[in-house]
Each structure stands twice: as structure tokens, then as C-alpha cells.
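Section 5.1 Outputs to date
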Amino acid sequence: MTWTIALALTVILISYPVESLAAVLLPAAALTLVVAMGMPGVRIFPENSPIGLELHVAIAIVAYSLFAIAFIQAVFLALAEYKLRHHHPIMHFLPPLQTMEEILFQVTTIGFVLLTISLALGSVYTRDVMDQHLAHKIVFSVLAWCVFAVLLWGRWRYGWRGSRAVRLVIAGSVLLGLGYFGSKIVLELILNR
């Protein structure tokens, strides 16, 4: 996932001045990669697994990565708006608010499309949801999808932006994080499965 975040961020950097995102996400990605190198490798898919299942996981990783970028962008946007409301100068390394909001919605829209595709593929290729301990992941992912759907519909229909958009992006991203990392932590660290 960290490779995908770094790659997506590099692509975004081509079009937008988002060095502030790079300053946070690239060191975090590097740290995660260093930690991952010290951990044993695990085969994700069994031999002869359906290509649709592998595609589901690959698309989900890209979607999660984009939502991680959107989450950090939403935090920066919230910080900038807070500073403006309280008549403090905005930090110089942040791009203009309009640019930050544009990036937020572009990344969120692409992530939403990929999450939709991933959920659709997962519903076709995933079997034995309870045996594979996927119920929590599915519930949180669908809840996150609903949050992002409401946000994008509200943006299209009512022009939602600002703090409402920030709250919904953060809420959806947290739900996705709980679905993936929360279930992984419970299963692997607490239940030793």
C-alpha cells in the first residue's frame, strides 16, 4: 500500500503543488517499507486463485491508498480553514485552499470509483465470508462507500465543500481504516489467527 501511495502522490505532484502532502506521506511510506522489510513475507493468494480475486485486492489497495492521500489532504484543508477563521496566517507550505479542495475531490472521486469496482469484484469472487473473517471488513468498507457516495452526491447536487467535505472524507477514511487495519489487528495480534 505504501508503494501505491508514493506512486499516486508522484502522479499528483506532476499536476499540482502538493509538496506538503509529500512531506508527510513519503517519509511515512519509507518508514513503513523499512518496518515491512523486517517482517516475514506471506503469500496472499493460494495457488490457482481466480484472477478476479487478485484484481479485487489490487484495486482495493489502490483505492485505500488514494483515500489515505485524501485523508491527509482533508486534515491539511481543515487546518488551513481553522487558521483562516482565527485570523492566523496559513502555513506557507500549503497550496491555496481552492487547489487543496480540488485535489481532495479528484482523489476522492477516483478512490470512490475504484472502491466501487473492488466491492463489486469482491462480492463475486469472495466465498466463505465468515470462515475468512471478512464480515467486519465488508461492513466497514460498505459503510465507507456510503459516506463517500453521500459526499460526492452532495458535492454534485448541492455544491458541498469546506468543513462538511473534510468531515465526510475523514469519516469515510476512518471507516476504511477500521475495516482493513482494525480487523487485521484484531485477527492477527489479539486472536492470533
